[in-house]
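User: Please predict the structure of the protein below. I'd like the answer in C-alpha cell form so I can feed it into my own downstream comparison script.

Assistant: Understood. Taking the following sequence of 205 residues as input:
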Amino acid sequence: SYTYKFEEVFMEIRKATELDRNDIAFIYADAFSDDWKQLSTDTEKMARALRNGHILNNYFVAVCDERVVAFIALMTDEVRAFHIPIKDFQKEFGFFKGYMVGMAMKNDMEKGIPLDKGMAYIDIVGVCKEYQHKGIASSLIDYVFNNYEYSSYLLSVTNINNKAIACYRKKDFKEVRREKVKYPKQRGFSEYLYMVYHVNKSNLK
C-alpha cells in the first residue's frame, strides 16, 4: 500500500478486498449521481443495485479517516472492472425498467476495449462527494502510473461529467474520440469522451 498526506490527514491506497464492496458501491452511486439521476436520485438504492457488479480484483481504494473514500479500477487481462447485475437492477427499479436500463449500460460497461500494445484502460475512478477537490483522484492516478509499467493509459468519461474531464485534462490526458450512447434520455448523457495519457517516466515520482 501507499500512504499520501493531504490537508494534515493521511490517506492510504491499497488493493480492494471483499470488505470494501459496500463502500465502493456507495461511492460509485454518490460520485456519479448526475449520471444515474434519470434512473434514481436515491443514492442508497443506486448503491444496492450496483453492489454486486464490481470485479474487486481490478480495484484499488483510498482510505482516509479509517473509511474508504475513493477508488480506481483498471481493466486487467481484458476483464472490465464492472459487470451490470441485471437482477439487482430489476429488484431495485422494477422488472422492465431495471432490465432495459441495465442492458443499455451493459453494452457500454462490459464491451471489450481495444488497446494498443503497452496500453492500459482506467475503467472507473470514483471519489465520494465529501472528499472531492482534495487531489485524491489525482493521487490514485499517480499511484497507478508509479506501480505499473504501461506506456499509455486510456479512459472514458461521460460528456456531462465536467469535473472529471477537468481533472483528467490537468493530468495531461488528451481527448482522442467521442462515442454516442444508446438511449441517451434514459442514461442522462449522450456521449463518452475517450482520453489518452502517454507516460513520460522522467515525470513520475
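That's the full C-alpha cell string. Helices lie at 21-31, 33-36, 43-50, 86-93, 95-109, 136-147, 162-170, 184-187.
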